[in-house]
Amino acid sequence: MRKHANRTYLFAPGNHERRVEKALGLGSDVVILDLEDAVAVSEKEKTRQLINKGLQQTRNCAAFVRINAYDTDFCFGDIYSIVSKNLDGIVLPKLESSADLKSVDWFLGNLERERDLTLGSIELMPIIETAKGAVAIRDIAKASSRVRRLAFGGGDYTRDLGMEWTLTEEELLPIRSEFVLASRYGELEPPIDTVFIHIKEHTAYLKSCQNVLKLGFQGKMCIHPDQVAVTNKTFTPSNEEVVWSKRVISEFERAEAEGVASIQVDGYFVDYPIVEKAQRIVDMANLLKELNSPS
Q1: What is the C-alpha separation between 85 and 113, in angstroms, rounded?
Q2: Distance between CA atoms of residues 89 and 122, nearest Å
């Protein structure tokens, strides 16, 4: 399994070879080759082989495939066709139950054994995007060790609930908060936020990234190349944050060695939760440094 950050997940339609090739070199942490919404029903089976070809390309990012939903006629064939050493993860859309997730996990495990792959090496990232999925989200968060993080699908979610998806997105605050809570409950990584469909609304998109970062998300799915750089920058700790975090960790370790578990750093109260957050920032910075270092 390829090591990767999780700031940006860029979609590319699996049936467009040139767009797949381009997407794999645009600086996204993960590229999602799409078999679902971007591919017409008549093209789905043929697109599986095009995706396998795309997965063989040299790349500096992880490659996931969004298959068709569990309750469709294509889900089984999608998984059977794409599982190989070149696949880093599967995006499972419209997931609505932990039972469906466990079924996909079981099938994947059997394919890994059959194809001499490391058991559990292929990640599963569910997209929760319906009312049923939202109700089951806490069970889903604890259902499979393959799931490192959850993703939110705002388009189908607002359609399912009859909501208006506005530029400011205040209506999404409750469900986004639930994603963060369920992820922590399930001991998962922070979640990945929905795509933003207003491609030319650059200011609103930046605000969306900033808002979900504050809520506790670690990244966003992207539908346009222009969104990648903005998203990467927003979800990358600044040099100032990294320096501050290292100082917090250092001074707390010194105090802890003397039997003290709460201190002040420049008037800022620091205890174990603050140190844990600082460590996550430092870990993120170290991962990005490692990934960007010449091999």
Answers
A1: 12
A2: 5
SS3 of 21-40: the string is: HHHCCCCCCEEEEECCCCCC
* Residues of the chain under the 70 pLDDT cut: 293-295
Name the token pair of 227. 């969104």
Task: Please give the span between the terminal C-alpha atoms of the chain, in angstroms, as a whole number.
Answer: 17
Q: By the 8 A CB rule, do 131 and 160 touch? A: yes
Per-residue pLDDT reduced to its tens digit, 245-256? 999 999 999 999
Whether the full predicted model's pTM is greater than 0.85, yes or no, is yes
Residue type, 293: S
Span 116-134, pLDDT tens digits: 999 999 999 999 999 999 9
Place of tokens 């008549």: 42
In the block, which residue shows the tokens 């993960």?
30
Among 150, 63, 141, 146, smallest CA distance to 105 is for 146
State the Cα–Cα distance between residues 228 and 8, nearest whole angstrom: 6
Six-digit token string for 4: 């990767």
What lies within 8 Å, CB to CB, of 114 at 6+ separation is: none
Q: What is the pLDDT of residue 2?
A: 78
Closest CA relative to residue 193, chosen from 210, 185, 201: 210
